[in-house]
Amino acid sequence: MRPMRVLVAMSGGVDSSVAAARLLAEGHNVTGVTLKLWGGESDSGCCSVADVEDARRVAAQLGIPHYTFNFADDFTATVVEPYVGAHAAGLTPNPCVECNRSIKFGRLLERAEATGFDALATGHHARVIATPAGFELARGRDGGKDQSYVLYMLAEADLARLRLPVGEMTKADVRAEAAALGLRTAEKAESMEVCFITRGGRERFLAERGVMRAGAVVDPAGRVLGHHDGAARFTIGQRRGLGMAAGERRYVLDVDPAAGAVTVGPFEALLRDEVRVGGLTFVADAPPRATEPLLVQVRAHATPVEGRLDGEVVRFARPQPRVAPGQVVALYRGETLLGGGLAV
Amino acid sequence: MPYLDHAATTPLRPEALEAMLPFLQGSFGNPSGQHAAARAAKTAIEEAREQVAAALGAKPAEIVFTGGGTEADNLAIKGAARSARDRGSGDGVVTTAIEHHAVLHSCDRLARDGFRVTKVGVDAGGVVDLDALAAALDDRTTVVSVMLANNEVGTVQPLAAVTALVAEGAPRAVFHTDAVQAAAWLDVAAGAAGAALIAVSAHKFGGPKGVGALVVRQGARLVPVIDGGGQERDLRSGTHNVAGIVGMAAALTATVARRGEEVPRVAARRDRLAAGVAGRLPDGAVRSNGDPARKLVNNCHLAFPGVEAEALLLLLDRDGVCASAGSSCASGAIEPSHVLAAMGLPVDLARSSVRLTVGWPTTEAEVDEAVAVITAGVERLAGRAGRVPARG
Q1: A74: closest chain B residue by CA
Q2: CB of B320 within 8 Å of any CB in chain A?
Q3: C-alpha–C-alpha distance, residues B296 and B270, integer Å
Q4: What digits encode the pLDDT tens for the residues A286-313?
Q5: pLDDT of residue B367
Q6: Which among B314, B329, B334 has the least Cβ separation from residue A115?
Q7: CB within 8 Å: A153 and B381
Q8: How far is B351 from chain A, CA to nearest CA, in Å?
Q9: How far, in Å, CA of B185 to CA of B262, rounded?
Q10: Could you give the CA distance from residue B200 to residue B100 in angstroms, rounded to a whole number?
Q11: Helix B242-280 to helix B14-24 angle, to the nearest 10 degrees?
Q12: How far is A284 from chain B (nearest CA, A)?
């Protein structure tokens, strides 16, 4: 393989640490970068000083240069503010997806190209596969850790410049390799939460930004069943945390942020035959045929279900719980990501 | 490998290393003791104190050794403000918007403790606004802190005018100056003649890191920031950094002795650098930050419109050129410069600005290599930076 100049996005976690180590072992000219995206001096959440330090130490151990890029203003404008706005509008946003779209595979990929890197690498669990027809993105080897869903916006031209070295590995393999290399991140816990929300959780974060408006919990006929302290606390399909007395199981059917009303009802009322998808993009820049049976994934770790894409509408083979507007709808052919968009 | 970050730190002068070695090897005594080993260390420190005092235009008894420039600034500002408040003579603290964070954050701490803090603005060249300064002063002002020269753009402040205003508008105030950047290039004794407190840092003029000094003129009253065994006339407790102090004195003495020869040479290197970069780029592709008539001789601060400094620094580092931009936070990320913001530079130009600072070891060959690398990097990045592409 021709040695390439590769920029590795190092979060300070084990996956990107091993990604850098693997590229280096393959003989590439590797540079590490950690993104400062949020916050000032706080030592929690993303881009914390401790995480940057872990990335820097791993880079030093590998003997590669390491930089910190400050994309905090872009992150606020393209990830945090839209996240708050989406909640205010009653949507269910996925900020990691917006960060991938605008920051990692937007701003950072552009920076990598401008500074003469042949490729950008991350520690995502997904696989870039070269085929005669072009580059494809497939699910990661470790089904439980697959992250192709949050990469649905990548186009083939992006994949041509992207390396995902741990996509072929299971998480256990990654940790074992990190331990074998003596990397300090080998045992590091995974980050699970939205990185810019730290103390106080999502409700407090949204409340501080004025989008936790109290309102009524109503049934489909409009009868008031109770009250809540903020519609942004609820996601369509949610069952737990409704504060309802025992009785029949009820689910969030709809969220009306303008009225502050949260409608709840039985599971059957949640079922839909289709979902409309906005902003559709396709890896190969062309949609699949409307007759092709696809696998449709509507949440980060949901089991894919069968469906077809007809224009901007995904029609499910069997009725499915309503997809919350704002959620990613990703389309697959087997293990291969075709593209996706956001539920309307 | 062109090193153009001498304002961040500069190599140890050979004289400093030579002076330090005995105290890193055989002579290890604690100067506070009562025996031969202690006396040797004590003598070395007192000789160093005389050398530092002579170089800064102070008396030996006016020198307080500290653990660096930041500590000296903290002691000066917090020490003077708290002492004045303890005596009931006032609560006003006045500084400028372009000070080093050692000064600004000390003032912020005082503001949280109930002091009245005013940060005076500067003009487009980075010179303190004297009218605004005068307006900020009153008879309850206890500390005024204006740097001798700025650490980012190198602008030398009109301290004679400042001290005259302070004497008139804030008669009870102690005047402090952060001379950390200036000490390598300017005669501090003359430039800061009107200051009661003067902070310097050894590693900026060829001494070791982690040692500095504060001039505390007779009559200036401070409460300590660090309490303990009462060293340094009770103003800075803690066992002396003997080797560091001796190294600082040797470096400062050498700096003063060589100034007549080094300053014109460094100025010529800096001018060659600035002219070289400008000459190789099209009109409008580079502009200089900071008042050119008031710049430290080693400072070259350039904005490259349309080029992101973060990206440029990466390209420079790849080709062996060390430079800097803005100020670094704990994560190592470059934070937008508060100095450039105070000068009214638009954010995009501030993000396109890099600081290139030459030093006494800088050669013409280094400058020429740096010019080639910098201009190649700028050309590569010009017009390709800054946008978040529309996608999806």
Answers
A1: B388
A2: no
A3: 10
A4: 999 999 999 999 998 899 999 999 999 9
A5: 98
A6: B314
A7: no
A8: 10
A9: 9
A10: 12
A11: 150
A12: 13
Contact of B315 with chain A, judged by CB distance below 8 Å, is answered with yes
Q: Would you call B329 an interface residue with chain A, using a CB distance cutoff of 8 Å?
A: yes
Q: Which segment of A41-45, A139-143, B32-36, B172-176 scores lowest on mean pLDDT? A: A41-45
| Amino acid found at B70 | T
- How many separate domains does chain A show? 2
Task: Write the burial class of residue B363 (CB in 10 Å: 0-12 exposed, 13-18 middle, 19+ buried).
Answer: exposed
Residue from B289, B322, B13, B321 nearest B151 by CA: B289
Instruction: Say which of B311, B329, B335 has its CB closest to residue A111.
Output: B311
Q: How many CA atoms lie within 13 A of A179 on its CB side?
A: 8
pLDDT at B390: 43
Segment B340-377, tens digit of pLDDT: 999 999 999 999 999 999 999 999 999 999 999 999 99
Mean pLDDT confidence for B51-77: 98
Asked if the C-beta of A57 comes within 8 angstroms of chain B's C-beta atoms, the answer is: no
Is B329 noted as a catalytic residue in this protein?
A: yes
Question: Which residues touch A146 (CB under 8 Å, ≥6 apart)?
Answer: A125, A126, A139, A140
Tell me whether A81 touches chain B (CB under 8 Å): no
Q: How many domains does chain B contain in total?
A: 2
> Domain for residue A312, yes or no?
no
**Inter-residue contact A13 to A190 (CB < 8 Å):** yes
Which pLDDT value is given to residue A43?
40
Q: Point out the domain boundary residue: B202, B223, B254.
A: B254
Put simply, the answer to whether A111 touches B330 (Cβ < 8 Å) is: no
The pLDDT assigned to B360 comes to 96
* B264 and B305 co-located in one domain: yes
Final residue before a domain boundary, out of B220, B254, B288? B254
Q: Please give, rounded to a whole number of angstroms, the shortest distance from the CA of B89 to a CA of chain A.
A: 35
Which residue in A48, A70, A102 has the most chain B C-beta atoms within 10 A of its own C-beta, making it the best mutation to test that interface? A70
Lowest mean pLDDT among A205-219, B51-65, B72-86, B298-312: A205-219
Given a cut of 80, is residue A47 above it in pLDDT? no
Complex ipTM, two decimals? 0.89
Q: For residue A249, what is the domain's CATH number?
A: 2.30.30
